[in-house]
Each structure stands twice: as structure tokens, then as C-alpha cells.
């Protein structure tokens, strides 16, 4: 059963634009390699750029795209250019004086003139470094531009459900949450993990471990198979390449500068840092999958390039005090299968829709009810142009919980990473997508709660049984 809701984003966005005449144009420019197209007019929301006389939108109805005023960014950019131009002129003067000194040895007037110019260069260079110290972080703080169909909203309460698929199972007993099932069946041990590692850690044991590796093998068999991917694309009505994913075991640590280029370092308090080596533990496989083609120019005929990475992930959950303290929904350490792709700009939204179609295919095969949500402007990460979540039904909690996400970054990350594609009319920045294939802990929660039996045991979904040890159809 599928219930489709036409998103209100179009009407909301159009209504706000008409009512408030939401226009804020910025002509941004940067030298060398731009992080943004700072040579074109870009439309931003209120609080982002200079207001051109339009009424100001309520703060709750717009995405504050930057943490500092864009006017300051433009002011610094202008000052920076002036200093760079002055430095170039001074360097020319220095070279000219040096030539004259070589021709007129011992000319004290020229020697003194050279000293003055060198002092001016040092002063201008010092000023430029000071401006850069403020300019670069400010430039890095400018988020991506939201897609046209992204809802305007302040937080996840204003996300929009696009469709709901499947009907919750009718139980003839009171369904339990996964942490109770895990305790009864000795599948999850959080108390012992707390003594060893602290809160938000868990031991997974026995059949649940077999279930995790069954999920991994099954999911990889899908995304690494061109025929299956072609079927998924056809079912979703997508005209897209069925090129399989390449499986990757990525590094679990990342350098700070690369993390910054991925625009995933912040919020920094969410990250585990190893000061002795100045490395961060990744919070998802995409953090080290995305830089795979850093500083590369990819052949157009190679596109799309798709990877599926399996890794542990580490998050401090600094802002989640008191949330989901029981069970394995929100841990400091967890395992994921993550999809990452590099594609042509004109195909990037279709690529994201394909990723979501793969996620839906998995949940349909697992026979778990779910809904697809498009996230509003207030519930998106800085790099995201468009963000969709898939939320699975959890009968033990009597609610839908997020199990998958899909992020379209357009060329936001590729500009920072300098990842381009060689095309007939020149090189162009690729577009990047990342999405959850399976967050294994959350996938197992959904299975445990939807497949639980009255005696506390859990049936293994039929599609996973070929990947489980023989006769282990129930855990």
C-alpha cells in the first residue's frame, strides 16, 4: 500500500516568494579556485545577503544560510583584492628598483627606496594575512543553496512526508521495543558495555551478529549487480545508468583539512579527535569516500562513479543528552553501509532519486513499512542542496524513526576537493551524492521490532535467510 502526498514545498515557496518578494542577490567573487560560483548572481534567503528593500521574513521561515553576514564577506573580499593588487604593484616596483641598483651600484637613494618598498611589502602582506584569517573561515561557512523543492522551515517538525509505503503489522500481543527484546534474548548487552566503555556503547552477540553480516552480504549483492539496479531504476521510472557500485573498505580516520573540504568537520564537538596525530575518527564512510578523487580530473565516459563503503562510524552525540539512551539507536560507535557517487551535474538529482529508490527497494524486500520525507531548510546540513530521509516503522516505539538519509551536495564538496570532469567544452566540477545503504544497527532495530514473536524471539526476514547460518531462521 502506497500513500503519496504531493509536497507543499512548491506552494509554500511560491507563496513566500510572492508575499515577501524574497530576493537577495549577491555578486560574489573569489580568486584562484572558488568554493562557490563567485562570478554569478546567486539567490539566497533573508539574513544571507544584502536586502534590496524587500520585507524581512520571520526567522522561523527561512534557512539562515550563513552564520555571519554576507556583507562582511564581500567587504573582506574587496579589501583582500585591494591588498593583493597593491602587493603586485609593490613587487613590480621592487623588481624595477633592484634592476636600477644593479645598474647603478652604490646609489644610496635607490638602496633606501628599495628598503622602503620592502617595508611596504611586509606591511601589506601582514594586512593580507589578517584579512585572510577572517575571510577564509567566513567563506567556508557559506552553506549550499537549497533546491527549488526543498521546504522552507525551522526544524524537523516542518519536514514534508512525500509518501508512506506499507501497513504496520497487527500484533496479537503488545510489541516490545528492541532493547527489551535484546535483553530477553541476550542479543544486546549495554550494561556490560557501559562498565567497559561508558554510556552509548553496546555488545551485540549471537544471532544479531549473524543478522548484521547477512544484511551486509545481501545489500552488497544488490548494489553490485547491474541487472538488479536496472530493475530498481525501471520500477522507479528513472532513466539512469545501472552501473554497479564498487565496494570499498575506507579509512576510519581523516585529516582535519580534508574533513573541512568535505564540509563535515562541523559541528566539531560531535567528532572524536586524536590530538597526538591530529586525526579525526569518521562519523560515516562518506567522509573518506568523498575525497577518493580529490584533485583529480575524471573522464566523462567514466561517469557516474559509484562506491559503497562499509565502516564503523563514531559520533560523540554531544547534542543528544537524554535522547534514546536505551538500546542501540544512538550509539557512539556503530556500523554502516554508505553509498557515494560522482556524476555529471545534469544527472545529480536523478542520481539522488536513484539512491532513494535503492533504499526503498531494500525496505520493501524486508517488508518493513516506511515513509519518505523531504527535509526542510532548517533540518539540513550545510553542504546539502537537497536532503531526503527514509523513516521506518518501529512498532515497539509506536512511531517512525529515521533509518536512511540521502544528501545531494551538487558541486559544493567537489569545489573544495577540486574534483572535476573533463568535458568537450572544458573541465567542470562534478556533482556528489551520498546516502545510507544500511545503518546496520537501525536496520536491525526495525527487523527486531517488526518481526518479533510473542515469546520474544525474532523471525529472520525471508530475503536474509540464505545469508544466515543453516537453520538459523529465528534469533
How is this fold's topology laid out?
Elements: E1 2-4, H1 9-20, E2 25-27, E3 41-43, H2 70-103, H3 108-140, E4 160-165, H4 178-184, E5 188-189, H5 190-197, E6 203-204, H6 207-223, H7 226-235, E7 246-248, E8 253-254, H8 256-261, E9 273-274, E10 279-281, H9 286-289, E11 297-299, E12 305-314, E13 333-343, H10 348-366, E14 370-374, E15 386-394, E16 399-410, H11 412-417, E17 420-423, E18 426-429, E19 431-439, H12 440-450
Parallel strand pairs: 7-12, 11-17
Antiparallel strand pairs: 1-4, 2-3, 4-14, 5-6, 8-10, 9-10, 12-13, 13-19, 14-15, 15-16, 16-19, 17-18
Which tags fit this structure?
475 residues, alpha+beta, nine-stranded mixed sheet, three-stranded antiparallel sheet, 35% helix, elongated, disordered N terminus
Describe the structure.
The chain is an alpha+beta fold. The protein has three domains: 7-70, no CATH class; 72-140; 156-467, BirA Bifunctional Protein, domain 2. It has twelve helices and 19 strands. The protein has helices spanning 9-20, 70-103, 108-140, 178-184, 190-197, 207-223, 226-235, 256-261, 286-289, 348-366, 412-417, 440-450; strands at residues 2-4, 25-27, 41-43, 160-165, 188-189, 203-204, 246-248, 253-254, 273-274, 279-281, 297-299, 305-314, 333-343, 370-374, 386-394, 399-410, 420-423, 426-429, 431-439. The longest helix has 34 residues, at 70-103. The protein is elongated.
Specify the overall morphology: elongated
| CATH top-level class of the largest domain | Alpha Beta
Task: Output the structural class.
Answer: alpha+beta
Strand order, sheet with most strands: 1-4-14-15-16-19-13-12-7
CATH architecture of the largest domain: 2-Layer Sandwich
β-strand amount: 15-25%
